[in-house]
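Students often ask what a 'structure token' actually looks like in practice. Rather than answer in the abstract, let us consider Plastocyanin-like domain-containing protein, a protein of 98 residues. Its sequence is given first.
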Amino acid sequence: MAPASSVLRFCLLVTALMTLCEMGAEAITRQYLFDVQTTSVTRLCSTKSIVTVNGQYPGPTLFAREGDHVEVTVVNHSPYNMSIHWYVYASRFPPCLI
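Now compare that with the structural description of the same chain:
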């Protein structure tokens, strides 16, 4: 399966799930663009190639409130097939940064 068709299927799945979870008229749509690419990183005199999202490792944090629509467009510039994993941190208060 070509990487482009995998990305398209993933985006369609995310869009369908967000449409099903619509909560109300006050919801806003938050749009994110993920550019996935391989980047050379040097640590302790050793250079390695890692996969980054928008030049970041780990990838960017997405912010949304309950009821918001989230659209994520993923463009895979790396030679590898990718899968995106979502971790949800739900809290009424921001994390304590001590």
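One point worth highlighting: The two ends are 46 Å apart (CA to CA). Ask yourself how you might have guessed this from the sequence alone, and why that guess would often be unreliable.
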